[in-house]
Design brief:
The chain has helices at 47-57, 65-73, 118-132, 147-155, and strands at 19-20, 37-41, 77-83, 86-94, 101-109, 137-143, 159-164, 174-180, 192-193. With 196 residues, it is α+β, with helices and mostly antiparallel strands. The protein binds coenzyme A.
């Protein structure tokens, strides 16, 4: 898949987990295209599978085992999509204490499973996690020249808010996109603010 190896939406910076959201629920809002496809919170037992997805999806700027392990142990949300028990994709959503916007740090679906709805389900679950944490928007960075990814996010309701020249390690520009998130029925902020 041409686009699969071309996009990295994460920014190269140290992660500072500050907030522990409730376990996200997709609540059946995002229709899965097959009955076996589900999203749940990732655990340390998913580490090897997530590393395999990283390797398959990203030629550069991969999350290392250490960063993934730290992400899993942090107060941020790491969600895994699985089909019939096999982890096929994941996403990471970062929260900042007091912040009103969450950040989609990474999202990837193994190329063998792309185009079958897992990415859309993960994106919806990321939005659910952001809402559940009391955030009013989800933002992300995407390679500006990755027409597939930009179009994919645009179809999902994301709009450009900034252009970031020379954002990536290879000097490529990014586009920052954001989507407003309507308030969740329960306006409760997550269970507790937590230092890393
Ligand atoms: C971007 C990505 C997460 C999308 O995941 P996905 O599971 O393929 O997404 P979906 O199946 O939900 O949606 C893909 C869309 O492209 C369409 N599509 C068509 N041909 C496709 C193909 N060969 N592969 C993937 N999608 C294809 C699908 O029909 C679908 O259309 P829709 O949005 O109108 O329904 C995934 O392609 C990926 O991991 N890419 C590599 C990493 C990456 O680029 N991450 C994003 C960083 S910003």
């Amino acid at each position: 898949m041409g686009h699969a190896a071309a996009t990295v939406c994460r920014r190269r910076r140290r992660l500072i987990p500050v907030f522990r959201p409730p376990t996200p629920s997709t609540g059946g809002r995002a229709p899965a295209r097959d009955a076996l496809l589900e999203v749940r919170a990732a655990t340390a037992a998913d580490l090897a599978a997530l590393l395999g997805i990283e390797d398959a999806c990203f030629p550069t700027d991969r999350m290392s085992q250490r960063s993934l392990r730290r992400m899993l142990a942090s107060g941020n949300a790491t969600l895994v999509a699985h089909r019939g028990g096999e982890a096929i994709g994941y996403c990471c959503v970062l929260f900042r204490r007091g912040g009103t916007a969450a950040r989609l740090y990474s999202i990837a679906v193994h190329p063998d499973h792309a185009g079958r709805g897992a990415g859309t389900l993960l994106l919806a679950a990321a939005e659910d996690a952001a809402r559940a944490a009391g955030c009013r928007a989800l933002r992300l960075e995407v390679r500006a020249r990755d027409a597939f990814a930009v179009a994919w996010y645009t179809r999902a309701g994301y709009r450009p808010v900034a252009d970031l020249p020379r954002y990536y390690a290879d000097g490529a520009p990014a586009r920052r996109l954001a989507k407003p998130l309507p308030a969740a029925p329960s306006t409760a902020r997550g269970p507790e603010a937590k230092d890393a």
